[in-house]
């Protein structure tokens, strides 16, 4: 009986260690990778979703972040980084004058699902 309890104790300790290690790797890998673009702190697997839900009107929340971080900032929607571009002149510069540099980006499915109310 004590051997069985000992094996469960080792198993739970090992699984706990794996979960904590995975979250630490995920957090630190994204934390120090790509610090060029400013943005708020985020939580692994959740990203900035809690901060985006802090105000019922998403536009007010995004405007507040724009005032704090500038016209270009980074948010994490879940574990995926998302670049937010604000301001007419900044958008014109990026998508009209330098559009070929940004034309081959992959489609982001999570923001599309969120915008369409979960309908994909």
TrEMBL record:
Segments traversing the membrane: 6-28
Gene3D superfamilies xref list: Cytochrome P450
InterPro entries, per the entry: Cyt_P450 (IPR001128), Cyt_P450_E_grp-I (IPR002401), Cyt_P450_sf (IPR036396)
Name assigned to this protein: Cytochrome P450
Superkingdom: Eukaryota
GO biological process, one term: hormone biosynthetic process
Family: Belongs to the cytochrome P450 family.
GO MF term list: heme binding; iron ion binding; steroid 17-alpha-monooxygenase activity
Entry coiled-coil feature ranges: none
Organism, as annotated: Potamilus streckersoni
């Amino acid at each position: 009986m004590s051997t069985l309890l000992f094996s469960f104790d080792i198993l739970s300790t090992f699984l706990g260690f794996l979960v904590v290690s995975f979250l630490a790797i995920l957090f630190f890998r994204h934390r120090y990778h790509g610090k060029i673009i400013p943005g708020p702190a985020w939580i692994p697997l959740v990203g900035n979703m809690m901060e985006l839900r802090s105000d019922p009107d998403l536009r007010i929340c995004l405007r507040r972040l724009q005032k704090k971080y500038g016209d270009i900032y980074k948010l994490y929607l879940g574990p995926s980084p998302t670049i937010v571009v604000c301001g007419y002149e900044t958008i014109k510069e990026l998508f009209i004058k330098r559009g070929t540099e940004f034309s081959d980006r992959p489609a982001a499915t999570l923001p599309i699902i969120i915008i369409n109310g979960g309908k994909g």
